[in-house]
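Two quick folds needed for the group meeting slides. Do the first one here.
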Amino acid sequence: MHQESTQPVQPVQPHAAPKPQRLPPGAEHPSLLAAMFRPGTPMLWVPSSYFAMALTYMMLTSVTSIMFKNLGMDNGKAAEYASYLILAYTIKPLFAPFVEMYRTKKFFVLCTQVIVGVGFAGVALAMSLPNYMVVMVFLFGLLSLVGATQDIASDGVYVTSLDSRAQSLFCGIQSLSWNVGPIVASGGMVYLSGWLHTHYFGHPAGEFGPQWIESWRVIFFIVAAIIIVSAIWHARVMPDGAKAENAPKSVGEAGFILWDSFVTFFQKRDVWLMVGFAFLFRLSIGLLEKIGPFFMVDPVAKGGLGLSNEMLGLVYGTYGLIAVLVGSLLGGIFVSRRGLPATLFILCCAVNIPNVTFLLMSMYQPESLWVISAGVAIEKFFYGFGSVGFMIYLMQQLAPGKYSTTHYAFGTGLMGLCMMVTGVVSGHLQQALGYVHYFWLVMAATIPSFLVTWFAPFHHKD
């Protein structure tokens, strides 16, 4: 699935920057590897904390949709329920100031990871209940709030425990570690669910229904164990994280800071054009996000490609996500050489036009796994290539000002809101239109993206 949060949203940092700790003594050595792997280095906790964040996020917002589909839920409800779980991650800037008020950031990281681990184990156990679906959806909703808090606290430890040089040194590790999460969740876990279903429990691959409970129960126990082990590890190696100098000391002060950040956000020049850009740039991707995997696993008779979960995990969750990573790397190089104003519309084309591969696959329903893999990889590669422009635009044009980190979070929150809204309606639209007509709708939805990109304002130096 598309990754919606490649660059993790940082916690609110009002007014003044915190005074972070420096790298461990001697880590200023010019050798990059020596600094990264010295005893006490952030290399002990940065990769594991961002992997845990990503694994939680992807299991809740993407993998759940495949599980709902496997358990017999129709496309409309499966996409809708999974999309609602994005809401907590969308609104997390609203409660970030309150996390800053109490205890240490490490305390919140450990608490949230333990709760997430226990919660996923609870989901696995709940599958034995007669009304398991209701209980699961309720637990997923709670876990999304806890997972969003984990993101805030983990970002806070990173920002306040490392000085600027160390943050620059480890930013690539941070991003890479986050991106491993989707590969493990959408690739490895989905693949393993299919393997268990057919090879261990002996069920037919192409049938959906309660017989999938056995496989998914194992998956959630595995994920629960990974998160709990992460919490135990972080209890030993993660620093406490410093408190921001101007952290709110009361609920009233936190509310004032949040309100002031809203007021100053909407005082920005041409703010509504930038809001439109943040919300609409990925409109077509939001419509494709949940339906793409459904199209892969639905039977050929229903207009799908009839892949098993194993093949879905390989094609969509592994090859596709690797293509996203490569595309993102090359997209960053492209923007760095030519500048964002000269490349933003090209990047928008890269995000939107390759969606036509799904339209073509729905029309011809290829049987060759190579053709299907190539179609997915092309779309994902250009998605990664073009999405770099979106994140850079938010950083350079929308975020600058008194509350730059918070305003950047508002921008990514608007993008998340778009993904949630489109995800909620996508399954119902697909059921009404069928796959071919639905993918025509996806292509029509690229038009607003082109318009907001063409008129996107540039008021700050590139």
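Then this one, please, same format:
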Amino acid sequence: MELQAVLMAAGGGSRMTDLTYNTPKAMLPVGNKPVIWYSLNLLERVGFEEVIVITTKEVQKMMSTDPKIKEVKMKLDVVCIQEDGDMGTADALRHIQQKIKTDILVLSCDLITDVALHEVVDLFRKTHEFTETVPGQKGKKKTAEQRDFVGVDHSGKRLLFMANEADLEDGLSIRKSIMRKHPRMHIKTGLVDAHLYCLKKELVDFLSENKSISSIRGELVPYLVRKQFSKVNSSKIKEDTDDQSQKNSDSMSHQELLITSGDERLLQLAQERSCWNDHRGDMSEAYHGGKLRCYVHIMDQGLCFRVNTLAAYIEANRLAPKLFEEPAVHPSAFVSERCQMGSDSIIGEKCQIADKTSIKRATIGNYTAIKEKVKVANSIIMHHVTIEEGCNIQGSVICSNAVIGRGADLKYCLVGNGQRIEAECKNLTQQTHY
């Protein structure tokens, strides 16, 4: 691979704290594999031999003992950052600047996708709607995130504009410099950022000089998108003078981004003598004079979502196992012949499933014991869980090391790590137990 891979795995899972209270987001089990394993597997499948993993000491320790992570053949260059530090994704890149020797592919550890990475520069896809009832919540709640407004050219590949709904208090405003060069811009509102980026090495150097930029998604990418249409002077990108208000909003100490290339002279000569026009709608020069360009890959088919909310976590456990052709029941698990198991369920390593049980649309974690006459439907049972006789569990998430007492009846509940539900508890509905 010509790129270096950088995997961001230090996030605390602030939007799914019910699950990450005892287990870091990167190590939450999805289909009985840690979330981070899916990103590592994606990189390994396309030929990466090494990846820089930016994470915390807690995650590093858990990775070193996890059997699925041990199967990864790539070299893992783990860089730990402060667990209590307020470090954004751009800060993390700045932290590893000395390790970056080429252009980079940056991705989040909570991304699960079957996208063809060779087609990707920036990756977005249509919003995935999660319609299942979420444990601990009343009714069917949709994600509260506000929409992104994403502007692309007629080909759907050039990224021209990007803004979040939260930042548009005075309405949607498009700069004149963009409209002059791309009068056929399409604004899309049904896309979500997958946090997968291809970045030039120069951008990491740029970040080292502009420490006010903390986030790739929130600050760096919008800044680069704007800079595409600034006037060019001595190979430096300067702010377009037709939009002074936008210029004032850039508060970085070094606002100019130097665009360099080993073949800059040849590239310029090719552009000057080329009869090919890369845009339509006006009679301007073929390349519009811009050396800084942002592109987007819109994924319309396949599997692609981030495991960053409780609803997304539930959906991931249902869909992620379909990415791989693996047996639904681990060879080391014992499942009674008198167990009714749906084809859309998976049973983890060394599980014990007793007589007269019913398991439908469920993920059963490793080393979990389910006793006689238990019904489990539309639920996620993590590792080392014990479910006693006669329980009925529907639409729930049971975290690792929990014990569900005999005869308990749970519907749309979230049971925390190591918690115990007393025997004969009935009609526990839409609750979180810690």
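Slide caption for protein two: The CA atoms of residues 39 and 109 lie 6 Å apart.
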